[in-house]
């Protein structure tokens, strides 16, 4: 007999079944939120993985199309690789949970989330976030939970918790907040330029609701939770630290890391490590953990320098941004390009414009979103950090960074009616030393402007870091963290936005949560830095979007036709529209409401296509003068084609003012002539005349 637990959450029933399925996992729950059902399991290996110096956590979010009554496309008819949404969901589950596992735990842990059914008003992603936390909390895996996650929307100025599909559509904000019992541990947001104060209020409104859910989870753990198992600690022996300090005193380590050149610092650490390897050559047990020991020694040194001495490794002030530079039109012939440099972080973004037909099609669980016209892709090659490894395509990090930049820029994009293009921006990382995702936002904003995309405002991004002491009041917030401060610090708080407000947030931390003063200070610091970047660098490089798209970008003209005439333009099996495309060399898209987009690079060809479509959809009227090509000659007259699929006939008596015996005396196949429409004859047929054109 399984156990069932229920609570009302944001107006819907949340039900958790324990010991109903997947009983061989360390922890498993069958989650029900409305009609959304997700199986969440937590499983750990019996022994630690040998030869690693990190906690091997894997998070999976498996979408099944049967959950929304669909059969997968393609020949295979089964789900393929994880969708972008699935990867982003894995990341948002991982980020708040990872810090709560023991730092010296080396057993493999896998959190599996299987989506079984989807109620569009009850987010399967949110259900999986809650389920992963509950499954781990009731398992015997060491975990300092529970945690809870809440989604927040902003509809008509009011906060909406765990919004329905309709509310998401109308919302000015998509905020996700995870909390422990005391603190906020993860924030992710996309927003339509929401003011900082309103965003902070939303974060802590979600935090309050999370406390109710955590109290509910506590009752489940109290009744069903297993005793946490003992594990083999992989902590570095204290005597090794003492031996290292005798060979490399703290002052020497400070000198090694105190530089703004990443390569110099890495060379210094390499020399220190070689020196220690020689000193401990006969102690194999120490050599096995020496790399971790040196890492922790660096970490303690950097944290002490920052927190106690207010000294940053590159000598900057706590709120100082690294040297900035920006330029546009770096790459010839592309539709738009811009490069943004912040210290040793350098991103070049290229913009490509295309007809709306090239928008990305989505085949996922969200039935309200079937395509997207704006795509942001982010690439992180190994040379950007001075390393060598083969390129295997984008990993989860690259997909996450691309999605973050995309989310930051979507709120300022023009509507399809204002700018009928599909838009792709690709951020190439040329050099990396901290916050490349935020640099890609800056570069992309300028690249879009350079391409002539009429964005509503420039968007900049910056990251704040954190170093904490022994108490909640002992901390220091850093502006524009570099790689070393990210590695050894406690937080990477990325905020993007315009002068008006925030468009995106992503917060990663390594500690057990943040207090309200820390979050408020971090948001204030990023606003100050973001304003400086916009005013002093980006707007001075390109202050507004260019009035037209570039020379090599496709041009688009739009026209509206009667939806009932769409069939005439398309023709049987696409014969008519394909003939226009072949004749003019343009691309043509037609929506169900009769909106026609003609895309090409030559204005004359686009105008010819527009003229042909106009002829096709316009009914012949008396007095209308047209130009047609002779396509057929009969004894009684000639047939003219005015546009693909649009023909008319000139009777032999209407060809010339002089009497002619044969049509061929005046016309041959392929001749282009002008005619005037005479209206309908006695039999209701449209009549045309060549001889009456002048009149």
From TrEMBL:
Domain KIX residues, every copy: 223-302
Coiled-coil intervals: 262-289
Catalytic activities: RNA(n+1) + phosphate = RNA(n) + a ribonucleoside 5'-diphosphate
Enzyme Commission number(s) from the entry: 2.7.7.8
Domain of life: Bacteria
Record-linked PANTHER family: POLYRIBONUCLEOTIDE NUCLEOTIDYLTRANSFERASE, POLYRIBONUCLEOTIDE NUCLEOTIDYLTRANSFERASE 1, MITOCHONDRIAL
Its job: Involved in mRNA degradation. Catalyzes the phosphorolysis of single-stranded polyribonucleotides processively in the 3'- to 5'-direction.
Protein family (similarity comment): Belongs to the polyribonucleotide nucleotidyltransferase family.
UniProt name for this protein: Polyribonucleotide nucleotidyltransferase
């Amino acid at each position: 007999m399984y156990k069932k637990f229920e609570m009302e959450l944001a107006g819907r029933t949340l039900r958790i079944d324990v010991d109903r399925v997947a009983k061989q996992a360390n922890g498993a729950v069958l989650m029900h939120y409305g009609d959304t059902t997700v199986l969440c399991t937590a499983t750990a290996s019996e022994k630690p993985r040998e030869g690693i110096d990190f906690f091997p956590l894997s998070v999976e979010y498996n979408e099944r199309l049967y959950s929304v009554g669909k059969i997968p496309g393609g020949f295979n008819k089964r789900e393929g690789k994880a969708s972008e949404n699935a990867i982003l969901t894995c990341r948002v589950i991982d980020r708040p949970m990872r810090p709560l596992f023991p730092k010296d735990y080396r057993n493999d842990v896998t959190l599996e989330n299987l989506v079984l059914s989807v109620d569009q008003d009850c987010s399967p992603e949110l259900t999986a976030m809650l389920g992963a936390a509950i499954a781990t909390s009731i398992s015997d895996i060491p975990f300092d939970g529970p945690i809870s996650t809440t989604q927040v929307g902003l509809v008509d100025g009011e906060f909406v918790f765990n919004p329905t599909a309709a509310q998401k559509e109308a919302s000015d904000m998509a905020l996700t907040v995870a909390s422990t019992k005391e603190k906020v541990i993860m924030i992710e947001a996309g927003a339509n330029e929401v003011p900082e104060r309103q965003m902070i209020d939303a974060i802590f409104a979600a935090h309050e609701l999370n406390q109710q859910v955590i109290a509910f989870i506590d009752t489940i753990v109290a009744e069903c939770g297993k005793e946490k198992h003992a594990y083999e600690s992989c902590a570095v022996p204290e005597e090794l630290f003492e031996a290292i300090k005798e060979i490399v005193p703290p002052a020497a380590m400070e000198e090694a890391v105190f530089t703004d050149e990443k390569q110099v610092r890495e060379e210094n650490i390499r020399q220190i490590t070689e020196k220690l390897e020689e000193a401990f050559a006969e102690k194999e047990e120490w050599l096995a953990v020496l790399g971790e020991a040196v890492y922790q020694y660096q970490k303690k040194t950097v944290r002490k320098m920052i927190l106690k001495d207010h000294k940053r490794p590159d000598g900057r002030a706590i709120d100082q941004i690294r040297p900035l530079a920006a330029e546009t039109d770096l790459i010839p012939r592309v539709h738009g390009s811009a490069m943004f440099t912040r210290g040793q972080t350098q991103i070049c973004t290229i913009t490509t414009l295309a007809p709306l037909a090239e928008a990305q099609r989505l085949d996922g669980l969200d039935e309200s979103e079937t395509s997207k016209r704006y795509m942001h892709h982010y690439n992180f090659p190994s040379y950007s950090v001075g390393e060598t490894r083969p390129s295997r395509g984008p990993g989860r990090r690259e997909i996450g960074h691309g999605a973050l930049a995309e989310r930051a820029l979507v709120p300022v994009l023009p509507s399809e009616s204002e700018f009928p293009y599909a838009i792709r921006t690709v951020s190439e990382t040329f050099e990396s030393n901290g916050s490349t995702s935020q640099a890609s936002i800056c570069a992309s904003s300028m690249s879009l402007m350079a391409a002539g995309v009429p964005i509503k405002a420039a968007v900049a991004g910056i990251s704040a870091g954190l170093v904490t002491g022994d108490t909640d009041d002992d901390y220091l917030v850093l502006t524009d963290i570099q790689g070393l401060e990210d590695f050894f610090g406690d937080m990477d708080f990325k905020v993007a936005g315009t002068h008006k407000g925030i468009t995106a947030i992503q917060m990663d931390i390594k500690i057990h949560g943040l207090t309200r003063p820390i979050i408020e200070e971090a948001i204030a610091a990023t606003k100050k830095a973001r304003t400086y970047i916009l005013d002093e660098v980006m707007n001075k490089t390109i202050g507004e979007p260019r009035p037209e798209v570039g020379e090599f970008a496709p041009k688009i003209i739009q026209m509206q036709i009667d939806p009932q005439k769409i069939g005439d333009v398309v023709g049987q099996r696409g014969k008519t529209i394909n003939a226009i495309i072949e004749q003019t060399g343009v691309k043509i898209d037609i929506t169900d409401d009769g909106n026609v987009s003609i895309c090409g690079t030559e204005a004359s060809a686009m105008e010819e296509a527009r003229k042909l479509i106009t002829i096709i959809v316009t009914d012949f009227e008396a007095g209308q003068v047209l130009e047609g090509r002779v396509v057929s000659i009969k004894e009684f007259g000639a047939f003219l084609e005015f546009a693909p699929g649009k023909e008319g006939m000139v009777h032999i008596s209407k060809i010339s003012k002089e009497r002619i015996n044969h049509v061929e005396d005046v016309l041959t196949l392929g001749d282009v002539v002008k005619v005037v429409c005479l209206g309908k004859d006695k039999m209701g047929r449209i009549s045309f005349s060549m001889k009456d054109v002048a009149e």
